[in-house]
Amino acid sequence: MIIGGSASQRLAAGVAVELNDMLCPLETRKFPDGERYIRIGRDVGQEAVVIQSTGYPQDQNLMELFLILKTLKRMDVEHIKVVIPYFGYGRQEKRFKSGEAVSAAVIAELIQAAGASEIFSVNLHEDGICGLFDIPAYNLSAMPLIANHIGEKFENPIIVAPDKGALLFAEEIATILGCECDHLEKTRISPNQVETEAKDLDVKGKDAIIIDDIISTGGTIVNASNILRQHGASKVVVSCVHPILVEDALLKIFASGVDDVIGTDTLRSDVSVVSVAPLVAEALRRH
Ligand code: R5P
């Protein structure tokens, strides 16, 4: 039985179709004072899968997840596989300054305490997050799905990572497609501001596909797209796993001359054209 939290209903339905499994009715509401109410509408048996991304509104989605897990435990469900397609708070996985909360560790502890038996996530910002759990935790890669999508639309593109951190993603896609890849150099000045430069970049006359795990404010992508245009790329297309797209990020990206934006449905957005349902379904089948 698959339970889709309110942040991942459509994806949960897609996974249920892939697995030929049943979707469990889930009632979720907000009381007038803002508190959450959930009700699991059916007896789910011994084993359940809960799918809930914990992106914006993070705290609300997390609280809903905790309520679902604890309720399943009370219903004597023995094994709960928890799929968190986008793992919120994942970017604070260590203490950068004394006194800071290691938020990712706190969240991992709470999800586990609420009753999770196994965790599945997609392109965690840091692979090390899996190690914060004492239960099996799997970090799935959406890159092959994104590569397939790119491969259907572009012939021999160049895959560009907007910073060194994304180079592994670019290499994964380039290896699948058998095309070249390169990366830019990025320095983050503040949460809203980045500086980017290119070294020995050759994209003249080529279709350049930028790949990143997350697009948040869009600053990283706008800089990368400007550089690729300056270096003569014939097309600039952006792809990412998690389209957070804060405020007017998408508008800023298109205004910078980007031809298209491709995202997955780990988060609901206007650009969620690649579904991770087959990836999640396959992982659930295997484990
Ligand atoms: C950074 O390490 C991530 O991979 C992304 O590059 C970053 O989160 C994108 O943020 P923004 O869209 O705000 O530049």
Question: How are the elements arranged and paired?
Answer:
Layout: E1 2-4, H1 9-19, E2 26-30, E3 36-40, E4 47-51, H2 58-74, E5 79-84, H3 103-114, E6 118-122, E7 137-140, H4 143-153, E8 158-161, H5 167-177, E9 181-183, E10 185-190, E11 193-197, E12 207-215, H6 219-230, E13 235-243, H7 249-255, E14 260-264, E15 272-274, H8 277-286
Parallel strand pairs: 1-4, 4-5, 5-6, 6-7, 8-9, 8-12, 12-13, 13-14, 14-15
Antiparallel strand pairs: 2-3, 10-11
Helix pairs in contact: 1-8, 4-5
Bound molecules: ribose-5-phosphate.
Mean pLDDT: 96
* Strands, total number: 15
What is the end-to-end distance?
A: 16 Å
* Largest beta-sheet characterization: 6 strands, parallel
**Helical content (DSSP H or I, runs of 4+):** 25-40%
Low-confidence stretches: none
Assembly type of the chains comes to single chain
Shape: globular
Roughly how many Å is the radius of gyration?
20 Å
Please give a structural write-up.
- The chain has eight helices and 15 strands.
- Helices cover 32% and strands 27% of the residues.
- A hairpin with a 5-residue loop joins strand 2 and strand 3.
- The two termini are 16 Å apart.
- The strands form four sheets. Strands 9-8-12-13-14-15 form a six-stranded parallel sheet, with helices on both faces.
- The longest helix has 17 residues.
- It has 287 residues and is an alpha/beta fold.
- The chain is globular and about 60 Å long.
- The site of ribose-5-phosphate has 13 residues, from strand 12 and helix 6.
